[in-house]
Design a protein that fits this description.
Strand content: 25-35%
Oligomer: single chain
Number of strands: 27
Largest sheet: 8 strands, antiparallel
Helix content: under 10%
Distance between the termini: 9 Å
Radius of gyration: 21 Å
Amino acid sequence: MTGLSVLVLLGACGDSVDGGITASAGETATSTDTDGPGTTTQGSNSNSESDTLPTSTTAGSNSDSEGETTTTGPGTTTDGTEGNTSTSTEPGTSTEPGTTTEATSTTTEGVDTTTTTTDTSTSTTNDTNDTNDTNDTSDEECPLAQMHLPCDADSDDALHAIGLNCTTLGGQWTNNQNAVTVANATFQAAPPMLGMKPWQVAKSYGTFIDPNTNAPFWGSREGDKVLLISSGLLPAPNPQGAVIVPDGDVFNDVAFGGQWDSDTMPPPMTAVNGSPDPMGFTNCDGVNDCSNTIADQWALGGGDAEDKMWFGFEVTAPAISNGQIADANGYTFDFAYFSAEFPEWVNTDYNDIFVVWQSSEDYTGNVTFINGQPLTVTALWPIDFQGECEFLDPNCQGSDPHLQGTGYISDGGATGWYKATGGVKPGETFSLTFAIFDMGDSTYDTTAILDNWSWDCEGCIPNEVDDCGIAPQ
């Protein structure tokens, strides 16, 4: 692949931080802008929604969470809580689970919840993989990944799409055997407008077909579907399951005020250095960013976060001591990054950010960064697939065919697929929060594709860039 070689560092510091918060969606407006950052034209509102928000399961519990919808299978709702309600409270105020109220109106989205009892009766065998003496982290050597059973063929749940929380479907999916149960799931996104919204579950993105596989290049990495998250707006999948964005339709403002435009990072993230060492990763406070990678980038953009979208969950790593078939020393997931800010806004204040924040026993902070910077247009440059060329760049062809149908073929560009690996302790409960947002403007869209979340038996050693990293796929 072209572009710079990238690595993710994971630091060893801090205490466990509870990342569970209430899922909600609020009232916003949208606009289209093609002139540059900071200029918006107000559009219209719409609160219609049919997609499935993540199911949240508390492992070991036998009762459903109050105020949320219980489902018995994909698409089956037993207590309807979806719909639109009108209320008059402060903007961005969260009430019951699945509800956010705005000053003028509220979109209520039911977060489907089914609780299951965790099965930890699996006996320990002598052939579980102890990979501490090897650097090979392939899925084939990890029984936890090898036995993973996708569940998104008949589900539009956001977590199911990336390989999580399949135990809410019951039946053949068993926690820490062939599936992963999450707890305290939260999903925060501005409500849909004009038939579009900041996230979609789809079989693929764009129209480019990989000639080597005869399958969509931006398609599923496990199972049938992927999760798309964006600081802009995404149309619903077409009848074939593909999200296709018209060329140039990547300049959207999805929110005016409220929690989506507040000048704070999505909780539990902070833009404060968590380590007294300028290089990060030592003597961390367990609350702020142990990597010390976000603060400078946040300041560069004036702390002006716009069009935020985020989701998070808690999960317990499998452990042989708890009766699972292997120890999970880490996790992996696949992602790709698209932005309309490539290439003209590289090295400027307009530097959209994609962050994955871990709160665990040994580490609290950003776990996705390159050369001391979070995943931004500046840090990721140069990229694999350029739609738009730098001024007078004789080596750039532009309009890369891989970007067909993504909206970015003439504005911006994209990285290739990457696999991120993080480290945890077997048996510990930790939280992960994924967030994407504009910095310094609210018009130039940035989109990420997520898929293939999996346990990793080998994991990685914090602070060692050769062990923790982002590998091109």
